[in-house]
Design brief:
alpha+beta, Beta-Lactamase, Alpha-Beta Plaits, 42% helix, elongated, EC 2.7.7.65, coiled coil
């Protein structure tokens, strides 16, 4: 059979690597139904075309079975299209030489009862995805919460151990925040945190991590940022935050503690908790030095405080 003959089958056909779930082939029918270009599908992960619930089902149930048997028949999965529509499907999978061969048929035209079950499952999937998102987000500032930040930091550390680039851990604390709360009330304090969170979010890239670490303390992890870039960034951050005014037209200031990871101290990445601790110690030095400034963890003599 020629490759062109594969395009005659009225079903979605694609091939993924068994170890990584990378898509290495798909037919034109798949491209048409998913609604994404061929080069956007091939090379991506299976998770790019299936729902989160299907991904969990595959990793926890289907993959272990495919390790010990060469076939998996009539698996109920849900595909997602380019416009985020969900399509219930039935998949048959065969294993050969480290590859998974998928043959998928739509199941959206089955009887009414089946459709109701699919809709109920889709609703549960959406709720699960929403709950997953809510579990990662601080409800006041809409930034990542501490738990989500820790998870993302662990992923980043694993990546940096494979391919290093300079990274900086910043702890940011609002100066005199207790006085603001005591004087103007907690609602005023919350307004300040929301405004500050907006500045931090706008000042970071999608590759960075920005989170509410606790109380009036925030965490930023700058990826691919050397000492000078981090210093310049902190200076710009001070200037941006200085434009915020709260009750009685008082200017808001913050103190920042930084732990800079360079190639010569990248072994510290293996101790994630100590990275934050070093940044926290630098933060306290910034406060002890008069607040409204940045201090770097003192691992090199040439790293000065930034005012």
């Amino acid at each position: 059979m020629k490759d062109a003959d594969l395009e005659r089958f009225p079903s979605l056909l694609f091939v993924t690597r068994q170890d990584s779930s990378e898509i290495v082939f798909c037919n034109n029918y798949t491209v048409e139904k998913i609604g994404r270009p061929l080069n956007a599908i091939v090379g991506s992960k299976l998770s790019s075309i299936v729902t989160h619930a299907t991904e969990v089902f595959f990793e926890s149930y289907m993959r272990p079975i495919l390790v010990s048997t060469p076939f998996f028949e009539e698996a109920l999965i849900t595909l997602k299209t380019h416009d985020n529509r969900r399509i219930p499907c039935v998949a048959n999978i065969a294993v050969n030489e480290g590859m998974l061969y998928w043959s998928i048929h739509f199941a959206d035209k089955r009887d009414k009862l089946y459709q109701e079950l699919i809709e109920a499952r889709d609703n549960l999937e959406r709720q699960a995805e929403q709950l997953s998102l809510l579990a990662r987000v601080d409800p006041l500032t809409n930034l990542l919460n501490r738990r989500a930040a820790n998870n993302d930091i662990q992923i980043l550390v694993t990546r940096l151990q494979r391919q290093f680039c300079p990274v900086a851990f910043l702890l940011i604390d609002v100066d005199h925040f207790k006085h603001i709360n005591d004087t103007y009330g907690h609602d005023a304090g919350d307004d300040i945190l929301v405004a500050l969170a907006s500045i931090l979010k706008n000042a970071t890239r999608c590759s960075d991590i920005v989170a509410r670490w606790g109380g009036e303390e925030f965490l930023i992890v700058l990826c691919n940022s050397d000492f000078q870039s981090t210093s310049d960034y902190c200076q710009r951050l001070h200037e941006s935050i200085h434009t915020l005014q709260h009750n009685d037209n008082q200017t808001l200031t913050v103190s920042i503690g930084v732990m800079q990871i360079r190639e010569e101290n990248q072994a510290l990445l293996e101790q994630k908790d100590s990275l934050i601790k070093h940044a926290d110690n630098a933060l306290y030095r910034a406060k002890d030095a008069g607040r409204n400034q940045t201090c770097f963890a003192e691992f090199k003599q040439h790293q000065p405080s930034l005012t």
